[in-house]
Amino acid sequence: MQAVTVENMDVQIGRKHILHQINFTINQGQFFGLIGPNGSGKSTLLKTIANIQAHHNGHILLHEKQQHTFTPKQLAKMISYVPQETDVGFDFLVRDVIQMGRHVYGTLFKSETKKDEEMIEWAMKQTNTTALQNESIRHLSGGQRQLVMIAKALAQDTPIILLDEPISALDVHYQLKILTMLQKLSEQGKTIVIVLHDLNLAARFCRTLLLLNEGKVQKIGTPEEVLTAPLLKHIYHIDARIQKDEEMNRVTITPYIEEIESNV
Amino acid sequence: MEMNEKGKHRLFEWNKTWTMIVLTILLFISIVVAVSIGPVSIPFMETIYIFLSKLSIPVDMVFEDKHAIVITDIRLPRVLLAGLVGCALAISGVTMQGLFRNPLVEPGFIGISSGAAFGAVLAISLGLAAIHQAILPLVAFLGAIFAMALILLVWRVTNSNSIALLLLLGIGMNAFFSSFTNVLIASSSTEQELRGALLWLQGGLEGATWEQVKIVGPIILIGSIIICLFGRSLNVMLLGDEQAITSGVRLHLVRNSLLAIVALMTGAAVAVSGIISFVGLVVPHMLRLVIGADHRLLLPASMLTGAIFLIMMDLISRMILQPVTLQVGVVSAMVGAPIFIILILRSVRRV
Question: What is the pLDDT of residues A59-95, one digit of tens each?
C-alpha cells in the first residue's frame, strides 16, 4: 500500500515559493530519507505532510486517502512528528511529555488506560529514557530532549512517523541505536520518513532517498542511485569518493572539497 | 525497579486528590476567618453555626441575630466576591501563560484591564456611574471585551498565528487605552469624580453586594470549570503549535475558546472589583513550584488558591490600617509583587 503520496504539490510561505511541483510516493513500511542542502525545503516538506504547513495546488494522500479529509484526531492517529528542536518552557516531567503522545487516545474524563501505560513504557524502553522519566524536561541536555521527543512520537503509535533531523544532537552510539530501532519498526510495517544531514547514515539506513534542491525533487532512488559523485558535486558543491562495500552491501561517501584541500 | 516506578506514578495520583482536598479545606477556613474578623469580631465557632443554620441544618447553639446579619448581609458577599475574583484572575493567569507559553503573561496583557479601566473611568466622568450602581461595572465589562476584541481582530487581520505578535499588539493597545484613561482622569471636573476613578483603578471590593455575587458567580464558576476541561490540551500546547497539531489538538478552536472564556471571566471580575494585579502572576508561579506544571492539576488548584489568596488580601486590606481601609488591589500588589520578585530570583539562581 502507498503510505504517502504527494502529487504536483506547491508550498508557498508568504510570497516565497518553498516547494515546487513535488511528486513522489512512499510505500508502507519504507525507511524513506529526505536529504538536501540547507534551505532546500526538507523541513517544510515534512511539515506539509503532517498538515502543520498548508500546501497550495496538488494533493497529499495518506494511506490512499486525501489529507484534507482527515479530522485532527484521525490525522494524529495516522502521523506522528518529531521536530528538529523542542523548547519546553515549563517544568514537565519526562514521563508527562511522553504521555502527551497519548493525547489523541484520551477523552476529557478518562485518565490513563492500561494500553496508554504499556505504550509509554515501551516507548521509553526503545529510546533508553526510562531512567529519565521522573526528571524535569528542562534539566535535560539537547540530545536527551531529542530522545524524549522520539519517545513521545513512538507512544503516539502511528503507522507513519515523520522525523526532522532527530539525531542531530545525539552521540554516535545513540545515532546508530535510534536509527536501528527505527529500521526495525519499518520492518514491522511502520513507515518512517526522516530528514538526515549525514549522507553516510542516510545511505546506510534508508532504502529510498529523496534529494531535494531549491524546493524541487532532484532525484529519488536507492542510495546508490542518488548518491553519485556528479550529483553531489552539482547539489552540494563537494567532491566525493564513493565506495561500495560489497560485504555490508552499502555505499560510503568520503566528501572533500578539492579546491580548498589542494591549496592547503 | 518495575514496582518502584508504578509506585511513584500512583503517588502522583494520590497527591492530586490530596492537593484538591487540602486546598478546599483551606478555602473554607479562609472564608470562615474572613467573615468572622472585622470591626465586630465574631467567634469562629459561632460563624460556623450561623453558616449551618443558614443551610437549614439544625444546631443547638444560640447565636446573636445581629451577628448573623453582619455575616450574611455584609461580610459574606464581600468575601465570596473576593474569592470569585481571585479564582477568575488566577485561573485566567494560568490559562494565558499556557496559551502564550510564557510564565510572565497575565490577562491584562491582551487589554482586558486597560479596556475595563477606560470603560469605568468613562462611566464615572460622564456621570453615568452616579445614575445607577449597575452602570459602572457594565461599562467596565464592555470596555474589557471591546479592548480584547479589538486586539484579537487586528491580530486575525495580520493573518499570523504568532503569539508574540498578539502580545506586542496587546502592549500597544494597552498603552493606547491607558492614555485615554489618563486624559479622562486629568479632566475630571470634581474631586469626587477623581477620587472615584482612582479608587476604582486601585481595585476594591467595598461595594460588594449579593446581586454582584449572583451575576458574576455563574460566569466565573462555569468559565473556570470549562477551562479545567482543557487541561490536557493545554499541556500538549505547551510543546508548541507543531506538537499540538500533530498530537490531535484542535489548536485554533481550543485557543480561541480559551481566549474568549478568559475575556468573559476576567471582564466580569474586573467589572466588580476594579484593577487587581499580580494575582494572575503570583498564584500560578507559587503553585507551579509546589505541584508542577501539569494543567490537569494546576488549573483546578489555581481556582482554589486564587480564591484563598484574594480573600486573605481583602482581609488584610480591611484590617491593617483600621479604621482606614486600603484597596484590595493595592494590598495584593504590595504582598504579591515582593513574592513574585523572590520567585523570579529563586528561579534564576536555580538555572
Answer: 999 999 999 999 999 999 999 999 988 877 788 889 9
How is residue B172 written as a grid cell? 500597544
* CA pair distance B168, B166, nearest whole angstrom: 5
Greatest CA separation found in chain A? 68
- Residue labelled with grid coordinates 503520496: A5
Q: What is the pLDDT of residues B227-255, one digit of tens each?
A: 999 999 999 999 888 999 999 999 889 98
* Overall residue count recorded for chain B in this entry: 351
| pLDDT computed for residue B151 by the predictor | 86
- The per-residue pLDDT for range A89-113, each reduced to its tens digit, is 788 889 999 999 999 998 766 667 8
Mean of the per-residue pLDDT values for chain B? Answer: 85
Q: For residue B300, is the peptide bond before it cis, meaning its omega torsion is within 30 degrees of 0?
A: no
Confidence class of residue A263 from pLDDT cuts 50, 70 and 90? low
- String of DSSP letters for B27-60: HHHHHHHHHH-SSS---HHHHHHHHHHHTT---S
Judge: A50–B245 Cβ closer than 8 Å, yes or no: yes
- CB-nearest to A103 from B101, B236, B240 is B236
CB spacing of A106 vs B233 below 8 angstroms:
no
pLDDT tens digits, one per residue of A6-21: 999 999 988 889 999 9
Pairing of strands A79-82, A160-164: parallel
- The residue among B282, B287, B285 whose CA lies nearest residue B313 is B282
Q: With the CA atoms of A77, A79, A85 and A87 taken in that order, what torsion angle do they form, in degrees rounded to the nearest 10?
A: -20
* DSSP codes, B145-186: HHHHHHHHHHHHHTT---HHHHHHHHHHHHHHHHHHHHHHHH
Q: Helix (H, G, I), strand (E, B), or coil: what is residue A118?
A: helix
Would the CB atoms of B242 and A106 count as touching at under 8 Å? no
Tell me if residue B229 falls in helix, strand or coil.
Answer: helix
Give the whole-angstrom CA distance, residue A210 versus residue A4: 13
Q: Is A248 helix (H, G, I), strand (E, B) or coil?
A: coil
The pLDDT of residue B7 is 40
- CB within 8 Å: A72 and B233: no
User: Nearest C-alpha of chain A: how many angstroms from B212?
Assistant: 32
β-strand A59-62 against A31-35: which pairing, if any? unpaired
Instruction: Find where cell 510561505 sits.
Output: A13
So what's the pLDDT on residue B321? 75
pLDDT above 90 covers a percentage of chain B that reads 30
Write the pLDDT tens digit of every residue in A172-215.
999 999 999 999 999 999 999 999 999 999 999 999 999 999 99
* H-helix or E-strand spanning residue B335: helix B328-350
Quick one: closest CA in A to B288, which residue? Answer: A91
> Closest partner residue to B246 among A52, A108, A133, by Cβ?
A52
Which positions in chain A touch B13 (Cβ < 8 Å)? Answer: 111
Geometric angle at alpha carbon A197, from A194 and A199, rounded to 5°: 95
pTM for this model (two decimals): 0.86
CB contact B32 to A (< 8 Å): no
- Which residues are A24's β-sheet partners? A6
Bridge partners for A242 per DSSP: A253
Q: What is the pLDDT of residue B8?
A: 43
Instruction: Give the ipTM.
Output: 0.86
Do the Cβ atoms of A116 and B232 come closer than 8 Å? no
Q: Hey, CA dihedral for B294, B297, B300, B304, is it positive or negative?
A: negative
CA B127 – CA B192 distance, rounded (Å): 11
